[in-house]
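Section 3.1: Structural characterization of target chains.
Under the original work plan, the team committed to producing a structural model for every single-chain target entering the pipeline before any wet-lab resources were allocated. The record below documents one such target. The sequence was received from the expression subgroup and is listed exactly as submitted; it comprises 394 residues.
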Amino acid sequence: MNLKKVVKQKKVVLATDAAFWEGKMGSHQRILAIVKELKNHCSLKIFYFGTIGLQRRIQIKEVGLENMVVSYKDFDQHLNPEEAGLPKLSSFANVQGLKKRRHDAFYTTFAQYLAVAQPNVVLIEYIYLAYLQDAIPSNCLKLIDTHDVMCFREYRFYQHKMLNAISMSVSYQQEQFILNHFDAVIAIQNHEYEILRKMLPQKVLLLCPHSVTYDAQYQKSTEIKNIGFIGADNEANRSGLDWFLQQVWPIVKQLNLNLYIFGKVGDRFQDLCDADESIINMSDNLTQAEIYSLVDCMINPVFVGGGLKIKTLEALAYAKPLISSQEGSVGINNQDENGMIVAHNRLEFIEGLIKLVKQPNLAAKLIQQGKNTIEQQFSPESCYQPLIDLISYC
């Protein structure tokens, strides 16, 4: 039997409410990477809970997904599922902390689409869309991509007295109950895979880290002049960047360095940028290629979160040495030789940046280590092979 041919014939539907083709957040990059790999192996459609106007159609085409994304607005949002002979929406996953992401119109239109598409596999992105599993036919493989173990993420934010950036709340028991209703659960990094293994001992679990591809063209000289930080406007990024600006930057900027802030988080620090010409807010107007062409190294001083820090992987993939907090390095193996300096406190962040500036050989060494890390741990082929294998056998 030709296994590749079998997989290619499988119909897979991925459900999401994220305009992931925009690539503005780590979660966008995660979904885009999975989609790009899946479309190479099977017949893929993306069911999107949002409007697809002209600008979005252009963006979708630019990332190679033309005619693959279907909007829920193409279906009757007011149809009664029972009267139409479709599965009824139950109270499954109707927990208080997920209610504001629950929409009858999403369910109704998704059920209509699945009845027509008749896929072999449905992949749900994020736990807050788990209620859609009621619409999935019983002869279809039901998968969920977790991105984070939400109950543990929420607890870490609570420990740091921060609001959960995703504004979701589930207990351990609720998350366990919800995930147990899927045929297989996808973990994004090894630590969370172990958590899920204990939470769901009888469940099929897939370890599928986020994938990136190393791009040597962004490897510039090992002289460190321009430092970069990238992040969406959430409390974890704001807190981490504020800490860096207060505790580290006043010292290291004396080395004649510039700090470029990319993403919406920079808008929160515009007043500081106006007062200090060494700090430049670039907001979210640049592509990844443009971002990494401007900088010589990256920082990731985040102290709370979950999942896998995609900005960390991107820095290594774009041939940039990286200084990160412990939290920013979670999920990446070979801790001492993976392309980054892990700083546990203010002094270690300062020392790390001084070493990078003063020791060009260290930057070159980290760049090579980063290349090895990406190619050995995070290539698309290795990251998503467990998922492709499962689809082939369904």
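The CA atoms of residues 127 and 136 lie 15 Å apart.
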